[in-house]
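Entry:
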Amino acid sequence: MRLLVLEDDAQLGEALSAGLRAEGHVVDWFTSGRYADAVMGDTAYDAAVLDLGLPDTDGLVWLRRWRARGVSLPVLVLTARDTVEQRIEGLDVGADDYLIKPISLHELEARLRAVTRRSNGRLAQVDWTHGALTYNPATKRAHWREQPVDLTARELVLLEVFLKHPRKVLSKGQLLEQLYDWRGGEPESNALEVHIHHLRRKISPDLVRTIRGLGYALGSIEELS
């Protein structure tokens, strides 16, 4: 997943970002609401982790603005405000879930998986299947024809992106956006092609179709059965 983390506490923000990246996610961490707001429309995030006690404007104000603009991004509120009334207010404003500090990184990741499942219409699905391919987003394990497939962190991210959009042609830019955050600068020009080559080699040559002039798409279920 590509995640937006909006947390002004440097120690917590660094720990969250490092922990989520270690689990294979791409994370953009911001300490100010206005910076996060500025990139919201230009970057395709899967979910956001939103602190409420921000230095510029309260997190609920930003959440209210995003929902008013029609932003449907799943948002998990992370806060020390623990009264029932405060949680109700956050949910009514548009939060998808609420987690009280201090938190467990494993619980945070599980809740993020839950809110993104709901947003993608996969509420009841634990394993994602496509033909003879099976992928579990919780364990990040892929199986091809019931045999485990050893994938790198970026290959797993790329596979998950394709499985989330099984009928969509994804451009090179859209895929790179899900693979690399803003910390590392521009990736190598052929980085995406290398990752796709490895997926095809490790799983199936028919796993990813090249749509000339447009991008890439997941192979059909018939080809992968």
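The chain has two domains: 2-119, 128-218.
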